[in-house]
Amino acid sequence: MRQDGMKFEKRILCIGAGFVGGPTAAMIACKCPRYRVTVVDTNRERIAQWNSATLPVYEPGLDEIVRKTRGRNLFFDTDIPKGIRESEIIFVCVNTPTKTFGAGAGLAADLQFWEKTARQILEHARSPKIVVEKSTFPVKTALAMERILNSRTGGIHFDVLSNPEFLAEGTAVRDMEFPDRVLIGSRDTEQGYRARDVLVALYANWVPRERIITSNIWSSELSKLAANLFLAQRVSTINAVSAICEKTEADVTEVSKIVGMDGRIGARFLNASIGFGGSCFRKDILNLVYLCRHEGLPEVADYFEAVVRINEYQKERFVLNMLEAMFNTLAGKRICLFGFAFKADTSDTRESPAIHVARRLLEEKAEVVVTDPRALDNAKADLRGLDGKIRFVQDPYRAAQGCQAIAVMTEWGLYRGLDYEKIYKRMVRPAFIFDGRNILDHRRCHAIGFNVYPLGRPALTHFK
Ligand code: NAD
Ligand code: UGA
Fold first, then answer.
1. What is the 3-class SS of the chain, one letter each residue?
2. Which ligand 2 atom lies nearest to the CA of residue 165?
3. Could you say which ligand is closest to the alpha carbon of residue 44?
4. Tell me: the pLDDT tens digits for 59-77?
5. Among candidate residues 387, 391, 345, 388, the one with its CA nearest the CA of residue 371
6. Neighbouring-strand partners of residue 198
7. pLDDT tens, residue by residue, 199-256
8. In which residue ranges of the chain is pLDDT below 70?
9. Are 92 and 133 in contact (CB under 8 A)?
């Protein structure tokens, strides 16, 4: 008999203590004090970090809810078999990266992590479980999961549900607390509906019932991929528009505002940028591309793939614009990257466009100085082993010292409020700003003396 069996109504397990598993578990523990929530991971160091004062991920508001729940009804552990045995609902939150080997390399999802998890659940479970796909999986993964889990004749019954996560990094806590929608896909059977209702009841602890959407399991799996495709497509579209703006003296911020005021289009996700980053957009779109090719839909695959191709183009276009503006040579010039995270308010640098820019600048033999308020450790890891001169400096004023150019990579609010007069005085002339996020006051920077190259807007220079 479990010692705390009387104390907790339900036992929940999250397998995978990453950006999704940790915050998801913390939110459930916070909103459902009567549930015991455990997070397990094969990575011992990560679990140790979750149990320490410095969490492995930086997310505004996360420290607070972890502090409130850890040791009360939220636990981080490495004993996966015990976690499986003791739980009724298991959220699978493992990573699903793009495959780097064999068939589908570079496109398809690498499924080894979830399959290993499914086999572990099968091996250690002693009672029926609801297994929830929280990670983003290719469509029909639930079928494979069911087949593995129910492969023992006369064994325990497992229900598989799809409950994709829509949180964005930097706003994860708010997104989970007040989600636009929670999606739960189930099999269209009595058994499937029963399992679905258990998960609906869990979320109903804090999410209004009308925001909890139920669907068939394949629609749920596909909707997650489609949602990321739509979001990324908007970024690629406005980025493609930024390229034509630069040729025509139109201003992409004005175009984006005008287009976004159409209620049918909407204003969000129309900020031109140096390109989208993050661990998911690229991988999820390529996953869809692979699926379409596999299903004999090459035209659809090409259409989706163009979203990723434009993103690559935008990153490279940014570097080539810098090269051209700085008299077609960057060799020996010191350039400061303002920001390295793939977006503001996160320490995450996965697929950050800054990685491409830094690598390319080094290829051009420039010296690179990286500054970022949260992501310098990850930046160091990302650029380790590259040839050339790279420095990492926390303080943006010191980072810009002796540089010929600043390139804004991340839209950290901090960069808006800096004293650019002070920065200008410390830089080599002619001094350049390439604003890959259009966050700075371009006119003011120009008045100070900078040659300013915004994205998708006319440049402001002092050259005759
Ligand atoms: P992550 O890499 O940060 O975390 C995954 C964790 O799973 C790692 O700590 C890894 O050690 C662990 N793991 C892998 N195999 C395991 C196993 N067999 N047993 C136990 N632990 C195992 O990944 P993430 O960013 O949390 O993403 C997880 C999934 O969620 C992905 O499918 C992703 O597409 C999806 N997703 C991510 C986000 C996001 O913002 N990061 C948002 C929505 C959805
Ligand atoms: C994205 C989705 O927004 C989430 O709904 C989804 O759950 C998640 O992917 C996932 O599946 O992992 P995330 O990548 O954390 O979340 O962050 P976003 O806010 O979507 O930004 C992605 C990238 O697009 C960033 O590099 C951001 O700077 C860029 N972006 C975003 C733009 O360049 N312009 C915009 O207008 C918006």
1. CCCCCCCCCEEEEEECCCCCHHHHHHHHHHHCCCEEEEEECCCHHHHHHHCCCCCCCCCCCHHHHHHHHECCCEEEECCHHHHHHHCCEEEECCCCCECCCCCCCCCCECCHHHHHHHHHHHHHCCCCEEEEECCCCCCCHHHHHHHHHCCCCCCCCEEEEECCCCCCCCCHHHHHHCCCCEEEEECCCHHHHHHHHHHHHHHCCCCCHHHEEEEEHHHHHHHHHHHHHHHHHHHHHHHHHHHHHHHHCCCHHHHHHHHHCCCCCCCCCCCCCCCCCCCCHHHHHHHHHHHHHHCCCHHHHHHHHHHHHHHHHHHHHHHHHHHHHCCCCCCCCEEEEECCCCCCCCCCCCCCHHHHHHHHHHHCCCEEEEECCCCHHHHHHHHCCCCCCEEECCCHHHHHCCCCEEEECCCCHHHCCCCHHHHHHCCCCCCEEEECCCCCCHHHHHHHCCEEECCCCCCECCCC
2. 7
3. 1
4. 999 999 999 999 999 999 9
5. 391
6. none
7. 999 999 999 999 999 999 999 999 999 999 999 999 999 999 999 999 999 999 999 9
8. 1-6, 153
9. yes
- For the chain, the residue count is 464
Whether ligand 2 lies within 6 angstroms of the CB of 217 is answered as no
| Residue 363, CA distances (Å) to 152, 233, 357, 402, 450 in order | 55, 29, 10, 20, 25
Ligand 1 contact via 135 beta carbon (within 6 Å): yes
Burial of 245 (0-12, 13-18, 19+ CB in 10 A): buried
Question: Where on the phi/psi map is residue 332: left (φ > 0), alpha (ψ -120 to 50), or beta?
Answer: left
User: Residue 86: CB partners within 8 Å, gap ≥ 6?
Assistant: 2, 11, 13, 38
Which residue has tokens 């019932």? 209
How far apart, in Å, do the first and last CA atoms of the chain sit? 83
Q: How far is the CA of 378 from the centre of ligand 2 (A)?
A: 18
Model pTM score? 0.96
Q: Which of 14, 30, 280, 403 is catalytic?
A: 280
Clarify whether 14 is annotated catalytic. Answer: no
